Structure formats: C-alpha cells, structure tokens
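Lab notebook, entry 181. We have the chain sequence and a SMILES string for coenzyme A, and the next step in the workflow is to get a structural model of the bound complex before anyone spends time on docking refinements. Request logged below.

Task: model protein plus coenzyme A, output structure tokens.
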Amino acid sequence: MDLDKPDATVLTLRPFAASDMRLLHDWLCRPHIAQWWGAAPSYAEVEDDFLPLSSPESSIKGYIAMLGGRAIGFGQSYVVIGSGEGWWEDEDDPGARGIDQFLANAEELNKGFGTALVRALVEHLFEDPSVTKIQTDPAPDNDRAIRCYEKAGFVAYSEVVTPDGAAVLMLRRRATPDQPR
Ligand SMILES: CC(C)(COP(=O)(O)OP(=O)(O)OC[C@H]1O[C@@H](n2cnc3c(N)ncnc32)[C@H](O)[C@@H]1OP(=O)(O)O)[C@@H](O)C(=O)NCCC(=O)NCCS
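Result returned:
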C-alpha cells in the first residue's frame, strides 16, 4: 500500500481555507445545492458569508470533505448560543453546536457519502469535551437530508421557524455509559 496516497474509500475533513472560495462559489451555484441552501449567490456574497469561516478565531468553522485526494463536499459547524440575527434565541447551553452540509456533485447523492460526512463532523466536534449536543435543521420537505441525518444518529426533536423558514430541529447528544446514544 502506498502510504502517501490518501485512501479513496475513506471520507476525511480538512479545514476550509480562503483559497477554497472559488470552489465553494461554484458548488453553491449548482441546482441540487441551491435548492436547499438558497438561490445561487454572487461571488462577493460568498466571500462576505464564508471568509470568516477560514479564521481560527471564528465561532463558525468550515470544512472540506475529502474522499481520497478529491474534494466532494462542504460542512460548517457553529456555536449555537449567541448565533444572533434571530437564530436559536432560546438556546442556553454553551456546549451546543450546529452543523450544515452538502455534497458537491449531484451524481454522488444517495450513495452514503452524506452520512459519512455527517458522522465525520460529529466525531470531530465531540473530540471537544465541552460539546454536549449537536443540532442540524433541514427543511421539513428535505426527506433525503432527514433520512441521512437519522442514519448518522440524529433524532427529530421539534419543528421550528428559523429566519430561513420552517425547519426540523434534529439533535444528536453525546453518548454516555447510561445512554450509548
Ligand atoms: C443531504 C445530503 C448531504 C445527504 O447526503 P447523501 O449522500 O445524499 O445521503 P445518504 O446517501 O447518506 O442517505 C440518504 C438517504 O435518504 C434516502 N432518500 C433519498 N431520497 C429520499 C426521499 N425523497 N425520501 C425519503 N428518503 C430518501 C436514501 O435512500 C438514503 O437512505 P437509505 O440509505 O436508508 O436508503 C446530500 O443529499 C446533499 O448534499 N443534498 C443537497 C443539499 C442539501 O440538501 N443539503 C442539506 C441541507 S439541510
């Protein structure tokens, strides 16, 4: 086995960098992503929204999902409390984190990569012992995403109205000896 060559069957995460901005803009303009992430944005809008994610100080972090040496998707995680702008105003747990994600290529949907991406994000976030739970908030009619998150161990908790519209709040709590999940 060539140890220098990434394993093409294992999904890994690398930090999102400012140099990924063109790639991210291209992805966000793809119809299968714009359908759920909002109308295709301009490059300037993407820069405004996502440049902070490349900073280590930001409470929102970006990730590129890699399959072997190939970039196949994007994820972001955020500290829920204090999100601002009308988001998650009832949250009082400083250990709560949220995630959002997509796969870059329409022909790679429904093959299990999304579940692998979500599991990788969960594993990464729970490496921080202060993280208590992780949430995600698909649209109520995004059945594929909801099923994917269930497979990754999330449970639908409630229907909520966010600044982006109706959503299903799904939660995954940290496993404890009493409650393995
Ligand atoms: C959401 C997303 C990350 C999921 O990744 P994925 O690789 O497609 O999902 P997976 O293959 O891991 O799992 C999808 C599951 O949903 C099922 N599914 C697909 N379409 C479905 C539908 N219309 N209704 C119900 N289930 C559906 C699949 O059969 C599969 O379940 P199974 O393995 O039990 O058969 C990916 O589809 C994506 O990027 N979509 C576009 C952007 C988006 O919706 N992002 C999420 C915003 S919250």
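Notes for the group: The first helix runs from residue 21 to 28. Worth checking against the assay data. The longest strand covers residues 70-79.
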